[in-house]
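#onboarding

Welcome to the new folks! Below is a worked example of what a typical request in this channel looks like: someone posts a single protein sequence, and someone else replies with the predicted structure as tokens. Don't worry about understanding the tokens yet, we'll cover that in week two.

Example request:
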Amino acid sequence: MPDQTAPAPAKERLVFGQGFLKDAWWFAALSGDLKPGKLQRYEILGEPVLLGRDTNGDVYAMRDICPHRAAPLSAGQMIPDPVTGKPIVQCPYHGWTFGTNGGCTAVPSLTADQPMDVERIRVRSYAVREQQGMVWVYITADPRRPTEPDHEPPVLPGVVGGNPIIVETMDFDSHIDHAIVGLMDPAHGPYVHQQWWWRSAKKQLSKVKAFEPREHGFAMIRHAPSKNSRAYRILGGAPATEITFRLPGIRYEHIQIGERQVLALTCLTPITPTKTRITQIFWSDHSLFRAIAPLFRLGVKAFLKQDGDMVNLQNEGLKYDPSLLWIDDADTQAKWYQQLKKEWFAHRAEQRDFVNPVKPATLKWTS
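Example response:
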């Protein structure tokens, strides 16, 4: 439940392909990407973010701009505080130092008779969580509000955590809305992804899938893979898969083959209004999947490139700001995404619980 004592954030006008969903957890990095003492610059929702792990191993995030002369703090270094010994970040320009909570600890150019209260100087900090081998950053709608979130990042099912088997990343020249709608689009596969080992380009089948609401999203409930999905057959047995989408931008496919599992997670993180980072991560305790992982990785790269090429092609039309014609049932998931976003903005503005607008449904399409 949102903090009833905090002022309501300004109500945003929801326009597809514009703006970002805030007061939410965004995937930022894998745990292994952050090394103790190393300062790393990220851009998330158009904000420069210093994301790092201090010398004690704790993860932190703060705005990557020194309030003095705007130098990136990530270009500085982490040093021990001369008084407390705690790890602090030192700006490379004039040596100002900041705790990992964003509070200024020292301005070296001040003399003893200059009574400046450096503790009033702050850099915006962000709440972070490290769980299941991933780092999540909470971006608030109002930078002046406290960063303490009112909900937690998603806990994923299956064999998540530790070192993943496959990680592939690509930046799409697309607003996150278009990237997400493309991700959940069930009808483009035969035309965009035509690998012989994945799916027959000639043999399209009618699909009937049941969906139900889930926390901040929805799921295609567990089902046997389609008969024209060849890759699943390689794993043997009788695989059953469930595909879940959750705001603000994650989709995961949980596959069970007897007692073995595969989890395929796709995280979409906005970098700027026109660039979205797609990170695909796979975990599994299935020995055959681990054995074929090097070949499967090539397929993942091919999929990402094909989707990226289609995004670039789509941009040729989107630059004219056309109206988009969405149909039932193939585009219903895209419509649900819009409804979920609308409810997210409404429940934050009205300071009430989130009410999932998705209802159980059975959708049909051909692909």
